[in-house]
C-alpha cells in the first residue's frame, strides 16, 4: 500500500520538515503495529510521540529603546516614539496595547512587518484633568506578535515596554540631571563672563594709574 505525504504550501521549510517527520513517526509506530498487533512497537511509538521535540516556537520581537520616557510641561501633550523590528524569518502581525489607566494615544496599534523590517510607533500622552502639581508616574505597553500564516508549530509572543511620564518641574529636573552638555555650556559662559569682567577692571586700573 502506498502513502502520499503532503504538506501545505504555506508552511516554511522548517515547519514542513517537522510535519513530515511527525507523519512518518505516526505511520511507522501506530498504523503498522495496529495491523500486526505489535504492542512493544506501539508503546515505543507512544513514548517517542510524547517526548519528541515538536513543541511550538515563538515569533521574534525586538523593541528599541528598551524603555520609553515622556517628559514635558503640565497640561500639555507629550509625545514619544519607539521602534519595533521583526527578527523572524516570516511576516508577523504586531499589536500594541496600553496596559495602564493613563490616556495614551498609540499610532499605529496594529501593523504587519516582513522579516528584518522595522516600524516606528508614536505614543502621545494627553492629560484628562488639569494638574496643579508636578507628576511622575509609570505604566507599560504590551507589544504582541503572532505569525501571519496559521501554523500549529508557532506561538504568539509578547514583551512589556516600560513607560515613564514626567511633567512640570519633575521633568525639568530630570532633563537637567541627564544633560551634561547643558551644564558644560553654562560653565563656559560663566568663565567667559569672569574673564571679560577681569579685562574691564584691569583697563580701568590702568587708566587711573596713567591719566
Automatic annotation (TrEMBL):
This is MSP domain-containing protein. The chain crosses the membrane at residues 25-52, 181-201. Signal peptide: none annotated. Keywords: Membrane, Transmembrane, Transmembrane helix. It comes from the Bacteria. SUPFAM superfamilies: PapD-like. InterPro entries: Ig-like_fold, PapD-like_sf. The lineage of its organism: Bacteria, Candidatus Uhriibacteriota.
Amino acid at each position: 500500500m502506498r502513502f502520499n505525504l503532503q504538506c501545505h504550501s504555506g508552511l516554511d521549510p522548517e515547519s514542513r520538515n517537522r510535519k513530515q517527520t511527525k507523519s512518518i513517526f505516526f505511520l511507522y509506530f501506530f498504523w503498522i503495529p495496529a495491523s500486526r498487533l505489535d504492542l512493544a512497537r506501539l508503546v515505543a511509538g507512544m513514548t517517542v510521540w510524547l517526548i519528541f521535540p515538536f513543541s511550538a516556537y515563538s515569533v521574534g520581537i525586538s523593541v528599541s529603546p528598551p524603555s520609553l520616557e515622556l517628559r514635558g510641561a503640565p497640561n500639555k501633550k507629550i509625545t514619544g516614539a519607539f521602534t519595533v523590528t521583526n527578527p523572524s524569518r516570516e511576516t508577523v502581525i504586531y499589536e500594541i496595547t496600553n496596559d495602564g489607566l493613563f490616556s495614551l494615544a498609540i499610532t499605529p496599534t496594529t501593523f504587519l512587518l516582513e522579516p528584518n523590517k522595522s516600524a516606528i510607533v508614536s505614543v502621545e500622552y494627553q492629560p484628562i484633568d488639569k494638574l496643579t502639581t508636578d507628576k511622575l508616574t509609570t505604566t507599560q505597553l504590551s507589544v504582541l506578535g503572532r505569525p501571519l500564516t496559521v501554523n500549529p508549530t508557532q506561538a504568539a509572543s509578547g514583551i512589556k515596554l516600560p513607560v515613564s511620564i514626567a511633567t512640570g518641574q519633575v521633568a525639568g529636573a530630570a532633563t537637567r540631571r541627564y544633560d551634561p552638555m547643558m551644564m558644560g555650556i553654562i560653565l563656559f559662559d560663566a568663565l567667559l563672563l569672569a574673564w571679560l569682567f577681569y579685562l574691564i577692571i584691569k583697563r580701568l586700573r590702568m587708566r587711573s594709574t596713567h591719566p
